[in-house]
Amino acid sequence: xxxxxxxxxxxxxxxxxxxxxxxxxxxxxxxxxxxxxxxxxxxxxxxxxxxxxxxxxxxxxxxxxxxxxxxxxxxxxxxxxxxxxxxxxxxxxxxxxxxxxxxxxxxxxxxxxxxxxxxxxxxxxxxxxxxxxxxxxxxxxxxxxxxxxxxxxxxxxxx
Length: 159
What we know:
Layout: E1 2-6, H1 9-22, E2 27-33, H2 39-49, E3 64-69, E4 72-78, H3 88-91, H4 93-98, E5 102-106, E6 120-127, E7 130-137, H5 140-158
Parallel strand pairs: 2-5, 2-6, 4-5
Antiparallel strand pairs: 1-7, 3-4, 6-7
């Protein structure tokens, strides 16, 4: 587990960018936290870290936003509006999981029982002076990613 405090939105985006540099080309990342905690902010940083220049908004109404950034493919899902976990089948998640793609899922608790376990779970909580982000590995690939992230963040602190 890795726990980090981000005092600003920019710091949270920087964390997302650091994560993008160490995430494998195919992985499943869950983002949990209250409304406005910064799940989309972290995702924006992730996508910007890969080189995406366009607008990044929460897919609350579209449910899925696909991104092709060079050779990388990413999907940003927001399950907040799901009425039933079985609706995930209609989103095409099964097909996405077969691709070489990073899938970032906001509000995964809305899909409980229909979603596979993530490689990495990111919990974002309000804290005085910013946000606290907790990264937890759920798979071997997630543990490898977490160790690489720890290394990248240590390098950033030293420079």
